[in-house]
Amino acid sequence: MGNIPVLKTSEVIAILIKLGFTEVRQCGSHKQFRDTTGRCTTVPFHQGRDISPILLRQIAKDIGLALEELLKHR
Question: What is the pTM of this model?
């Protein structure tokens, strides 16, 4: 996949919720999500800022999915 989209924070959070993640805590402007198997990731929640392709790739890596697999759940 050569063209990685820039997603809104709400889109990334919606994907995580579809995958079974729940918000476990928030520290400042960063929300932490965890699923029942113990996988976890942190999503920055800055007003008016989107999730960059580099950060999206890191979130996918944190939860053990390929980026393409993560984007299928949009």
Answer: 0.92
pLDDT of residue 3: 85
- Two structure tokens written together for 17: 């919720």
Residue boundaries of the structural domains of the chain: 9-71
With CA atoms as reference, report the closest residue to 45 among 63, 64, 66, 59. Answer: 59
In angstroms, how far apart are the furthest CA atoms of the chain?
33
Reference 35, options 25, 23, 21, 24; nearest CA is 21
Architecture of domain 9-71: 2-Layer Sandwich (3.30)
Q: Would the pLDDT of 16 be above 70?
A: yes
- The pLDDT-based confidence of 2 (bands split at 50, 70, 90) is low
